[in-house]
Amino acid sequence: MTVATTEARPVTAALRAAVRPRRPHRRGPSRPSPLIIGFVLIPLLVEAVSVFWPAIQGFYISLTHWNGVNPPTFAGLANYRQMAGDPVFRKALEDTALWLVLFGGLSAAGGLGAALFLQRERRGIAIYRAALFLPVVFSLTATALMWQTLYQPNGVLNGVLSAVGLGGWQHAWLANPSTALYAQIVPALWREIGYVMVLYLAGLKGIDPALYEAAKVDGASAWQQFRNVTLPQLRSVNAVVVSVIIIDSLRSFDVVWSLTQGGPYNSSQLLSTYMYQTAFVNTDFGYGCALAVAIFVLAFGVIVSYLVRAFKESD
């Protein structure tokens, strides 16, 4: 008995060791493969070379006086102090704010209205969608030249006004300081509404139809369905649309420069056109870069403040 007991102990110990779960071997954090590192670093390098470094250089040039030929001389904040007392800059800032309100508001309303009208699948609906989106494909310069012919004193617009008995409204639309800016908003809207329509169409396609069915069962009218179902579901799309409109408004250049170059008498001067005129026409690159920095700060501040407010409301 003593021998059997002695022999059983090592067998039992061996079974316990075999059944006992093994603890996983602790290893250090796994290193990413060189391919993943390449996919991350190469775009970052391209972005740094093509975006960040020119932006840093532009900010440095805004602190100098430079005509593009002679070496730049450091001026500190002199260009920004000049900006504070520049009446043309204040006029360009006011026109840019007016452009942002009118162009942005009408683009969002027109794009949303077109998307609501064209969201249902009907026969031939694709033709109307393509017709509204077609101006987006055109070059802004070509669009401006086309509208310039319409705005001529003997152009189509004045001819239509004369044909419908409104000959008293005929005048040189682009040469009149009171109408030049508003006349240039129209071709910009003609192009922007189609783009905003596509964004809203994508958002409307993502709304669950069951929400509208439930609203109809509750007796909601079409306006109540739009206010309580459509608008809340388009909140994320609205953030994208507002960001796009603000960026497009602040960088609107092609249409204005092709039609009036900010004239007449700076009546349609925007920050973008004034920046270009200062830097590349007057060869004052230091002040032009300071204007570019002001545009960037304005766009960044408006977009970030809106997105922060939108995300707080969604939470």
From TrEMBL:
Family matches, as PROSITE patterns: ABC_TM1
Keywords: Cell membrane, Membrane, Transmembrane, Transmembrane helix, Transport
A GO cellular component annotation in the UniProt record: plasma membrane
Residue spans crossing the bilayer: 35-56, 97-118, 130-150, 285-308
UniProt cross-references to Gene3D superfamilies, sorted A to Z: MetI-like (1.10.3720.10)
Statement: the UniProt record of this protein carries the keyword Chaperone: no
Pfam families, per database record: BPD_transp_1 (PF00528)
Any one biological process term the GO annotation gives: transmembrane transport
Span of domain ABC transmembrane type-1: 93-308
Domain of life from the UniProt record: Bacteria
Subcellular location field: Cell membrane
Membrane topology, record value: Multi-pass membrane protein
CDD domains linked to this entry: TM_PBP2
Cell membrane among keywords: yes
Family to which the UniProt record says this protein belongs: Belongs to the binding-protein-dependent transport system permease family.
Protein name listed in UniProt: Sugar ABC transporter permease
Lineage: Bacteria, Bacillati, Actinomycetota, Actinomycetes, Catenulisporales
